[in-house]
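Hello forum,

I keep getting stuck at the same step: I have a sequence, I want structure tokens, and every attempt I make locally crashes halfway through. Rather than fight my setup again tonight, could one of you with a working pipeline run this one for me? It's a single chain of 149 residues.
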Amino acid sequence: MAAGARLTLTGGRLVPVSDTPVQPDETTTGDTDLETLVGEWLTVPDAAERLGVPLSRVRQMMADREVLAARIGERKVTAIPAKFVDESGPRPELRGTFTVLADGGMDDTEIIEWLFTPDATLPVEGAPIDALRAGHKTEIRRRAQELAF
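Reply #2:
Ran it on my machine without issues. Output:
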């Protein structure tokens, strides 16, 4: 693959993007699919309330990439997947995983999609986010690094 080639996430793998534009159809992943894939989302005010912190702190978490967010819904509100936080704040194993995936060429939406796409080969049932929450950080980061090559 040529240096600087554009990549996209398809079926949990990074593949080169063709320069030919793709026409949207029923198989094209859209915002609604990401919303459904993730399931529970927290808007910025909801996250602030759940964590007991000011709105500005949630926005700072997003800026520092402690959590990732996407624009969802009809009004395109900024929201964080609920599984990215627990009662004490952002899950600590996520930040490094976000970095590995971003270094592999993924944007925030693709990272969220990869983390929530079910994978039967994981050591626990579910998606990479479920494996991270179950303590399999090393395995998930190893898989994330493989995507970059």
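The longest strand covers residues 77-81. If your local run keeps crashing, start a new thread with the error log.
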